[in-house]
Design a protein that fits this description.
There is one protein chain. By secondary structure, the chain is α/β, with parallel strands linked by helices. The chain is built from twelve helices and 17 strands. A five-stranded mixed sheet has the order 7-3-8-17-9. It has a five-stranded mixed sheet with strand order 13-12-14-11-15, sandwiched between helices. A three-stranded antiparallel sheet has the order 4-5-6. Helix 2 crosses helix 8. The longest helix has 16 residues.
Length: 345
């Protein structure tokens, strides 16, 4: 159990952030998603089935951020299909967030179209430029946190670039690129709250996470192992991480747990909330693609190599534009390590 928890502590990545102007609208549509139910599959509850799958994934997996393919610029079947799209449909179809401030959000001050902007959006444009020769050749699809994997598996998108954590359970369902960002789970709560961080001050508190997020998986495992107070209420889950901020602002929950990188941007937008304590996990964002799309995975990994080398218009420039104001100067806390690949041929 201890070994399993050690691996779990290295996982995670959720999604958050938003602009205050959006929050009021989202509150109207925020949905409560129950964690438990009586539905069974072959006599086994859905919740139990998911738990068994997650535990097996942990047992069979080590260092999920290294479970990717070596870079290549070659076109394969997947890339050719993208390039063969005709007319206005000749675009890269990408699932993103549209409410995560400075990552993927619609800036109301950018004109009538309120175009998507942010760190993730910059990366999408770079990928489109490399594959299709045009950074604007993108069809963006707003995908909720809990629909990221289904959207890939169903073929609704070519990839997801949406602050998505690489973890052991997910690499059974989708293929990931090498990491493009490093972060960790943190607690977000009102400045006036007695909560001090991920510790005993969460006892009796209502904690919000997004359904299907690694934040929830981590809290659930920690509660089972006694690392989170037994009285902490982690049943408040929502389809999209933005809804957690709304619930916090409405007083329906006491704290939010999500990626620190996203929480920092969120705190920058709402002066009444702040990060509490340090990050309690180490996690990596990756571009998610369909299993078997090996040529696309390799191509994205090559793009990431070039993106990080390009100091003028690449990773560092995008970080400086979008994230430095909330996360500070580039450091080992945010910059991903040198990529390592599953195989080199």
């Amino acid at each position: 159990m201890r070994a399993r928890r050690l691996r779990a502590s290295l996982k995670g990545w959720g999604g958050v952030a938003a602009m205050a102007v959006v929050c009021a609208l989202v509150a109207v549509f925020a949905l409560y998603v129950p964690l438990s139910g009586t539905r069974t599959v072959d006599g086994q509850s859905v919740a139990q089935s998911a738990r068994v799958k997650a535990e097996k994934a942990e047992e069979d997996c080590e260092a999920p951020e290294k479970q990717t393919l070596s870079p290549s610029s070659a076109d394969g079947d997947t890339i050719q299909k993208i390039k063969n799209r005709q007319g206005d449909k000749r675009k890269l179809i990408v699932g993103v967030d549209q409410n995560s401030y400075r990552w993927g959000y619609r800036n109301p001050n950018s004109g009538k179209t309120a175009e998507l902007e942010g760190f993730d959006i910059d990366l999408v444009h770079r990928i489109a430029e490399d594959i299709l020769g045009d950074p604007r050749a993108v069809q963006f699809k707003a995908i909720p946190t809990d629909q990221r994997i289904p959207a890939i598996q169903d073929g609704r998108v070519d990839m997801i670039v949406r602050t998505m954590t690489i973890n052991c359970e997910r690499i059974d369902d989708v293929a990931f690129s090498a990491p493009y960002f490093k972060t960790g789970q943190q607690v977000l709560a009102p400045k006036s709250s007695p909560i001090k961080g991920y510790d005993d001050t969460l006892a009796g508190k209502r904690i919000c996470t997004a359904t299907g997020s690694t934040a929830y998986s981590t809290l659930k495992a920690d509660k089972e192992d006694g690392k989170l107070p037994a009285t902490a209420d982690i049943s408040k889950t929502v389809p999209n991480q933005l809804d957690c901020l709304v619930r916090l602002q409405l007083g329906e929950v006491d704290a939010v747990v999500t990626d620190g990188a996203l929480a920092a941007s969120q705190a920058a937008q709402d002066p009444t909330v702040e990060l509490k304590g340090d990050a309690f996990t180490a996690e990596y964002y990756g571009v998610a693609m369909k299993k078997g799309a090996n040529d696309l995975v390799r191509r994205v990994n090559q793009i990431l190599v070039d993106y990080r080398k390009d100091t003028a218009k690449g990773w560092q420039a995008s970080y400086g534009k979008w994230l430095s104001a909330t996360l500070g100067k580039i450091s080992e806390k945010s910059e991903p390590p040198a990529p390592q690949y599953l195989r080199t041929t």
